[in-house]
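Per reviewer request, we include the raw input and output of the structure prediction for the construct analysed in the revised manuscript.
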Amino acid sequence: MTDSLNYLLGNKKYQEPEEISQIKKFVFEKFAETPHVEINKNSIIITVDSGALATSLRYKILELQSIVKTDKKLIIRIK
């Protein structure tokens, strides 16, 4: 009756949320970098490697928010 955890989770297909893939695609197309993106209850946290990239991304935040179509707050962090 007891199944192994590998059996239960092995057949499951995982996909990242649409918001994450849209943000990663946007940043990669504009800046040729891949950010780390986390989704929380009220916010989406975008973590990038450099301060220059974070500043450039802040100028594009309204464009990014309209593409993602979310009410969550977009937060940009430097790694």
